[in-house]
Amino acid sequence: MSLLLYLLRRILQALPVILLIIIGSFLLIKLAPGDTVDALVGDMGGADPAFVARLRQEYGLDQPVLVQLWRYLVKLAQFDLGWSYVYEQPVTKVLASRLWVTLLLMLGALSSAFVVGVALGAFAARRAYSATDNVISTLGLIFYAMPSFFLALLLVLLFSVKLNWLPVGGIRDIGAFHTGWKLWLDIATHLVMPVLALALIYLAFYMRLMRTSVLEVMELDFVRTARAKGAGDARLMFHHIMRNALLPVITLLGLQISTVLGGSVVIETIFSLPGLGQLAYTSVVKRDLNTLMGIIFLCSIIVVLVNILTDLVYAWLDPRIELK
Amino acid sequence: MTDAPILEIQDLRISLPAGGDRPYALEHLDLTVNPGEIVCLVGESGSGKSLAANAVMRLLPEPHVHVSAGRILLDGEDIGAKSESEMRAIRGDRVAMIFQEPMTALNPQKTVGWQIDEVLRLHTDLDRKARRARALEILGDVHIPDPASAYNAYPHQISGGQRQRVMIAMALVLNPRLIIADEPTTALDVTTQKQILHLIKEMQRQHGTGILFITHDFGVVAEIADRIAVLRLGELVESGPAEQILNHPSHPYTRALIAAVPALTPPAHKDLSAAPVVLRAQGLAKTFAARGGLLSGRRQAVTAVRDLSFELRQGETLGVVGESGSGKTTVSRIVTRLLDADRGEVVIGGHDLIHADRRQLRAMRRDIQMIFQDPMASLNPRKRVVDLIAQGPIVHGVPKAEAHARARELLSLVELSPAAAERYPHEFSGGQRQRIGIARAIAMQPKVIVADEPVSALDVSVQAQVLRLLADLRDRLDLSLLFVTHDLRVAAQLCDRIIVMQKGEIVETGPTAQVFADPQHPYTQALLTSIPGRDWQPPKLTDAA
Amino acid sequence: MRNTHGGLWLGASIVALGAALTAQQVAAQDNGAEPRRGGTVFVHMNTEQGVLNPALRASTGVYQITGRFMEPLIDKTYDGYVGVLATEWSSSEDGKAITFKLRDGVRWHDGEAFQCDDVAFSAMELWKPLLNYSSTLQANLESVDCPDPLTAVFNYSEPMPLDLIVAAMPDLGHPVPKHLYEGTDILKNPVNQAPVGTGPFKFQEYERGQYIIGVRNDDYWRGAEYPYLDRVIWRFIPDKAAGAAALEAGELHESGFNGISMADLERLGKDPRFDMGTEGFENNVAHSTVEFNLRNPVLADVKVRQAVYHGLDLDFAINTIMRGFAKPGHGPVPSVGGANYTDDVPVYEYDVEKAKALLDEAGYPAGADGIRFKLRHRPAPWGEYTQLWGEYFAQAMKEIGIQVDLVTNDAPGFLNGVYRDHDFDTANGWHQFRSDPAVSTTVWLRSGAPVGTAWSNQFGYESAEMDSLIDAAAEELDPEKRADLYHQIQRLAMTDLPVIFAIEHPFVGITNKKLVNHHNTPRWDSSSWYDLWIDE
Amino acid sequence: MNAPDIEPAFEPQLSRPSRAAVMWRRFRRNRAAVLGLVLFAAVVLAALLADIIAPGDPLRRVGVPLTAPFVDAATPLGTDQLGRDILAGILHGARISLLIGVVATLISICIGILIGAVSGYFGGWVDDLLMRVTEAFQTIPSFVLLLALVAIFGSTIGNIVIAIGIVSWTAPARMVRAEFMSLRRREFVDAARNLGVGNVSIIFREILPNALPPVIVFASVVMATSILMESALAFLALGDPNFASWGNMIGQGRAVLRTDWYCTVIPGVAILLTVLSFSLLGEGLNDILNPRQKK
Prior knowledge:
Chain C: InterPro entries: Peptide/Ni-bd (IPR030678), SBP_5 (IPR039424), SBP_5_dom (IPR000914). The complex is a heterotetramer. Chain A is mainly alpha-helical. Chain A contains twelve helices and two strands; from the N terminus they run ααααββαααααααα. Chain A folds into two domains: 2-91, no CATH class; 99-317, MetI-like fold (Orthogonal Bundle). At the A-C interface, α2, α3, α5, α7 and α11 of A face α2, β10, α7 and α14 of C.
C-alpha cells in the first residue's frame, strides 16, 4: 500500500516535468525553419504550390502556434498522440513498432555494461594501482574516448564484412520468416554489435565509478569490522563492499538512461535498427512534430519509470532509505 | 594457564611510509594484558595507539604501514608468524574488536542479526537455528531490551547506545580471550557512556576476558583501568597500575596530561546580579517542520526547543549543558540567528534580533559573535588567516588596511605568531585553528560570544590551553559568553551559571557550584553521576602550571 | 480524328510491341540460361516516404516500390514508349482530346476488373488535384470520358501535345482502383499504404522504417509464367555505408539512385559479384546546379555569374565528386532529352583568369586579402554529394577571390531558406529532369510562381522572353517546333544564367549479378520487374 | 619543571612546500595523468603551430584527391575527397576541437554553477523549481535535443557550441547543487553569515571556491563529451562545413572508409587521443584536488 502511494506520488511529481518538456519541445520545433510539408516536398522532389497549400491546411499547420499547441495538449490529455504525416500512421502505432527495438538495445547495452563494468571495476579496485588495474582502467578510457560511430564502423568492418559472422544491420533477417525461438535468436544475432558498440562506451563509466566506489567503501569502518571478525577477501568483497559500493553506480544508471537513449541515435543509424533514436533523428529532420513529441513523451515516461525503478533498487540495497 | 598473559607486545615498532612526518608510528612498545585485566592504552591524537590495536589484529594497511620490529604474542604464539588464513581464524574468535563509532562500524545494509550470525558462521559449525539462538542469547546478555526485534533490525533503526551494545555482543559472542576496544565510548553521550563502560566491566568479569582499552580520556581511564600505558608520539612514556599512574604520575607528559583534565570543582560563585543584562532570550521555540507534502513525502516534525528563556549578564559565562538531542546547539543557532526561531525574542542592546529586518540584522551581527565546534570546518580553507579575521570588520565598513592591521594584533592576542597571518587554515593544528576562530569572533568587538562546543574536537592538553585563553580573554575584554557544551568537566571549569537542557527544555538552572553540589532535577543528577572518573580527583601537580 | 505523326508512329509500334511482349526478346542481359522461377530479391531503400501511391506522390522513392504493384498506362523502354495498361493512344487534331485504348483482361489485385472508370477517376480525383507536378501538367484537363470500358478520352481546354502527355505518363499516369477510393478521403485512405494495383507483385506487408514485402501475383495479365520471382523485399536503410555493407554481405541485391556512396559504388563496381552503372536510370537524369539569388545586386550582374561559371573546374568536380559518372551540362535540358536537347548553347569553360577579369570588369577588384566579396551559400542537404559540391564551390570561389560562407540546414530549413525566405546568395542542389521539360523543368525558369514553392524560380529571375517561350512550348503540338522552342529556352538560360546547370548525371545503381534481366529499361527501378529472375 | 611542549609552539609549520609544488607532486605520481598532460600539450601545440606547419586555408585544394599518406611529401598524411591536406585539417581541426571543447564546457559549467549554486544554497521552492527544469533537461535524451537544436538553428560553429553547452549543463548543476547543499551547512558558512556577509558574497566567495574542485574535474569529462558530441553531429552531416573540424573529416571520410581508410581513421585517432588526454588529465586533477589518503 505504501509502495503504491509512493509510486502514485512519484508519478504525480513527474507530471509537471513532463508537461514542461512537452511544451518546451513543441515550441522549440515550432521555432525551426520549415515544417513537415517542406520536408515531404523535399522527399518528393518538389510539388506545385496548390498541393503544398492543401497539405498545410490538411495538417493544421496554417493555424497559429499556440492554437496548435493547445490542440496538441488537449489531445494528449486524452492519450491521443496524433497522426504521423510522414509515416501516415497513428503515432502510437509508429512508436509501438520501434519501442521494443530501442528497449532491447538499451537493456542489452546497459545491463552488459553494468555487469561487466561493475565486475571489472571491483576487480581493478582490489588490485588498485597494479599493472592489471592500469590495463583495465586505460582500456576503459580508450573505449570511452572512442567516438561511438567509429567503434561501430570498426565492428562492422571486422565482424560482418571481413569475418562474415554477424549481419551488418537491421533487427532481423526479413526474408527468412523465422518464428518462435529462431526469431529471437535471429534478433539476438542482429543486436550483438549494436549492443557491444553502445555498451563499451558506458562500460568505462561504470567501471571507473565502481572502482572509485569500491576503493572508498574499502576504507569504511564496517569493512574493518568485518575483517576483525575474520572474514576473508572474497567474503568482504561480495557481502560487505560490493553492495555498498553499488549505490553510486545505481544512481548513475538512473541518471544516464536518457543519455543512452540519445546515444542510440548514432548506433541505430549505423546498424539500421528501426528504433526510437533513429526515429527521433528522422522526425527532427522531417519536422514530424507529432512523432517527435510522441518520442519525447515516451522517453520522458521511460526515464521517469527507470528513475523510480532505480530508486526502488537503491532503497532495496540501502535499508536506510525509506520510500516515503 | 590462567596466569599466563594473553597478549604480550614486545619491543614493537611500526614503520610509516617514507616521506611522512616521522619514520615510525610506534617504537619500543612493550605491553602485557593478563586474563581478566583491563589495560588502558592512553594517548592523544597521533600517539599511535590505534595502530597498536590494528597491529595486534594484523590489520595494518600493509605494505605502507607495517610492523618492522618486535613481536606480538597471543597466548604465547607469535602472530607475525601466522599465515593469513590462520589469522582469519584468530580474528573474531580469539581476539575481537570494538570500535569507536558504532554507526559506521556496522554494515548499514545488513541486519544486526546477520552481522552477529556472520561471526558464528565464520568460526563455528553451528546450524542456522543454533546460531540464531546463540545470537539472541548474546543480545540478551548485553541487555538489549528486545533481542528478537533487534535481531531483525538494521543498524540505523536502533539507538547509538544499542548499536554499541550490538558491537559488544558481536565481540563477545565467541567468548574471545582478548577484546580490543578502540575508544568505544567516545562517540556516546555521558549517560550512555556510563552504561557501556559498566557493561564492558561486567562482561569482562563474567568471562575473564582480557581487554586492551584504547582511549584519550582520563576520566574513562579512572573509571575502568586495571593498568595504564601512556603513549606519546609513538613512544611508551609510562606504564603501571592504574592507581599509581592516576595519582602519582612520574613522567612529565603524563603529569601534564593529568593536569589538563578539568577538575570537577566549579569556580567560586561570582555575584553578577548587579551587572547589566546584555542578552535576554524570551520564549524561544523552534520546531523542525515536516516539509512538503504530496511532492516530497512527510517527515516527522521535531521540536528542538520549546519555550526557552534566559538572561546573560555583562562579564558572565552561561553554560548550556545537555546531551545530544537536547536542543542546546539549536539554542546557539537561534541566538545568533543562523536559524530562524518560530517564536520568542532575543534582545541585545535593546533590539530584538529575531525580528530585526535585513539591515538591522546586519548591524546587530556585530554584537553577537560565535565560536564554532569544528575548527577545521569553521574556517574557509581557501582564505588566508588575515582575511578570515579581517572579513567581519571589512563587511561592516572598516577599511581593508585597518582591518588587516587589527587582525595581526589579534593574532598575538590569541598567542599566535604574526607570521600566521599569511597562511591558510590547513597549515595549523586544531588548537591553533580554534585560536584563529576566537580571533575572528573578537575582531568584531562583540558584546556577546556564543561558543558552541569550542573544545570538544580538541585533545585534552590543547583543550585546557584554549579554555584558559577563553577565560583570560573574557576577563580582559569583559566579554559575556554563552557556552554550549556536553562536557560537564569543561562547564565546571569555565561557567558561572549553567542551564541544563533535556529534550528542548530547561530542566535546571543555577550557579554552577550550586548545581554541581546539589542537583535538583533527576536528569541533572543522572548527568553528574555519569561523569566518568567522577570519584577520581586529579592530583594537584604543582609543576604543571 | 487525326493522329499526329509522332503519336501514330508510337502508337503503331506499341501495338506491335504489345503483341510481341510475351516473347523473351527484351532480355538484353540474358545470360542465355533458362529463367528460373522463385526466389526473393532484396532491394535497398535509402528514403522512406510513407505513401505508397504513385498517383499521390510523384517521386522515384515511391516508384521504386510501387512500380512492382501498380502499373502506368505507358512505360518507357530503350525502344521507346510502350503501352502497359494502355495499348494505343492518339490525339485529336486540335490537340484538345487524347484517347487511350486500355488493355483488356487486366484485374486489380483484389479481383476487380481494370476499366476506364478507374482511369477517369484517377485522372480527375488524383492526378489533377492531388499529384505533385501532375497538377500543373493536367491543369487544363476538363474531363475524362469513357465511351466504352476500355477507352478513355481526356478532354483539355487548351491543346495538349501528345509527346508531352506520353512522356509524362510513365511517371504521372498510374491509375488507382476507383472502387477502393471512391467516396473516401483520398489522402487518408489506408490503401495509400497498402497499395492495390495490377502489377506482377501484390503488396503484403509494410513495417515502417524496416521493410515492405511484395509477393507474386499469380493472376498477372502478362501470363502465368510472370513474374519469375516469388517475392520482393525492400529494406529501408537510410545510412549509405550501412547499405553498402549490407550489399557486400549479400543481404541486399540491388541499390539504385545512388543509394550508397560514390566511393562504395566504385569499390563494389570492381567486385566481380556486382554490376554497377548508370544503365536503367536514363529516364531520371539530374543536373547538379549552382543557383543564384538575383536579388543580390552583386549577383544581378550577369558578368559575375559568368565569372562564377568560369571559376568552376567541372572536370575536377565530375572526376572527384561524381567519380566520372557525369558530363558537363548545357542548360536546362539534359542530353537524354531527345529532340528537345541541343548543345548549341553558349559555354563557359574553366578559366580562372577569365573569371577574375570578368569580376574586375564588373567592378569587384580583389581587396588586400585577395577577397572581392562574400557570398552566403546554401548547399542542399541531399546527402554526401550536394554537401561535397557546396564545399567544392567554396574552394573554387576562393581561387577567384570570392569568399563563400556555407550555411547548412536540414531539408525543411534549406527549402524554407531558399524558396520562401530567399535567404541566400548562392545555393547548390540538384534538379531532376522528368522526361519532358514541361513537366518540372521550365517552371524553374518561369516567373510568377508563388513564393515558397520548392523547385520553382527561387532566383528572382524575370524575363518576359523566357516566359513567353515557355508558354509557347507548353502548348505547341508540332514536335519540331516544340524542340526548336526548347532549344531557344536553353540558349536563353545559358545566356542569362540565373542558374548554372553545371553537370548532368544519371543516377548510379549497383546490382548483385545473381539478378538476371536487371536494368533493362531506362526507368528500371521504377518498373514492374515482371521479367526479373534470380540465379541462385 | 615547565609544562612539556605538548602543542609544538604556536608557529605555523613554515617549511611546507608551496601549494603548486604539492599539487604537481600528487599529479606526477599518476603516470596516466602525465601521459594525458603530454597528449594534451601535443594537441595544444598542434593548434598553436597550425599556421606555421600548414599555413593557409586548410580547406583549399592542394593535391590530387584521395592521395594516401606517406606518398606525397607535400601532403604527408594524404588528401581527402576534395584534395584537401589531411595534415592541415588535423592541425587546424585541433583548434576547432579545443575551441568547441573549451567554450562548450565553459557555457555548460557556467549555467550549471549558476543554477546549481542558487538551487543548492537557497533550497525551498527555488530549488524545487530549478530542479524541475533540470529534470526536464535531463529527461530529454541530450543528443536528441542537440540534434534538434542544431538542425533547427543551423549548423554554424557558434550554434553547435551553444547547443552542446545547453545540453550538458545538468550534470554540473546537480553536482554544484549537491556540493552547495553540503557546504552551506558547514560551519564556515555559518561563520560568514554570522559576520554579516551577504548571500551573493557567500555563494560566490565563500562556498563556490570550495565547491569548484569536483566541478573542475568534471569539466574534463564535459570537455571530452563535447568533442565527441561535435564529432557525432558532424558524422550525421550536421557539422559546420566552413571549418576543418575532425568530426567533419570523419563524417565525409566515412563515405570512402572502405577504400581510403585514412580519411576517417586519422581524424578518428586524433579525436580518440584528445578525448583520452582530457580523461587522463581529469584523473590527474582528481588526484590533485580530491586527494585520498592512500597512495
